[in-house]
Amino acid sequence: MIHDLCLASSTIAKTDVYVSNIQEVYVGIVDKVEIGKNVKAYVRVLDASKKYFHNKNLKFMDLTLKAASQIISLKALGETSDEYTAVFLVQGMAIGQTSVTGIVTDRYGEKIYSVPQQIEVFPPFKLIPKKVTLLIGAVIQITSEGGPQPQFNIIFSIHDPSIASVNNSGFITGKTVGNSTILGMVQAVHAESGKVVIASQDKVEVEVIQLEAVRIHVPITRMKTGTQVNQSITLFPLQQQLQQSNMIGLQCSTLI
Hints:
The chain is an all-beta fold and 256 residues long. It has strands at residues 22-28, 32-34, 38-47, 64-67, 72-77, 86-92, 96-105, 111-113, 117-122, 126-128, 131-135, 139-141, 143-145, 154-158, 164-166, 171-174, 178-189, 196-209, 211-217, 228-237, 243-244, 248-251. This is BIG2 domain-containing protein.
């Protein structure tokens, strides 16, 4: 208790002072970030009694966050998620893998390090193609490029499952005429909480049509064995405008 003898008051002003050493430093961050995008890292410091220091005291400990390489950038933020946490902005700068370590300094000038947390910076995640048009009952598969390496799972969902369905492998099946959107998500794990979060996502527009007629046009009626000719396919969707497919190559093995 601290008592100011210069104060002429019958009421004694008092405050509680708690003194403790630094025990541990914890860093919470997701293990994946897309290049050019940001995630947040959360840092907490524990005392000898396993209690968290208030975040307003962390500046006196020279709290810093350090990356093992320059493929990510780190910036301290003024915001806080709670009264015990310091928040840093982590941005992916180059593709690769690195680790992040929290560092504080105790009253003796000794540095205390957190357990390094691994993080991967991955190339932009994209679904291919961006738009799909298919018939009722037809099936087409969505592929992807970029994303975490070497392997990762994509979680697919569709806005309107009555229009089409999509499975875990990205196969879309047309069900009824209409339009919908498919969302593909790449997940990451938060190191501190163990919770699964979304690291990146992309979408594909889906249109399901019903054909009224199909017209195939070939510019010639005879050709030599082993030669090629382009043919065009014109689709007539029911109650929709005329649509024409891309030119495709026709390989002949016999004389037509």
